[in-house]
Description:
By secondary structure, the protein is an alpha+beta fold. The chain has helices at 44-57, 64-72, and strands at residues 2-5, 11-14, 19-24, 28-32, 37-40.
Amino acid sequence: MITLTRLNGKSFLLNALYIETIEAFPDSTITLTNGHKYVVKETIEQIEERILAFYNSINLLGNMNQEVTQHEE
C-alpha cells in the first residue's frame, strides 16, 4: 500500500498493485484496473518512488536491483 494525498488534503492508502496508469493533467491522475480514478497532489515521480518502495517491501522485484548492479560492474 502507498500513502497518497487527495487535492482536499486528506491522505489515503492505495494498493499499488491495482494501478494501471498514472497521468498528469497537470494534477496526477491514477487509474486503477477496475476503472476508478484518483486525483492526487503527488507528482508522477513521487508516486513512482512510492510504488517501487512498496514493491521492494513485498519483494515483488526480487533480486532485480542486485542483478542490474552486477551487470554494470
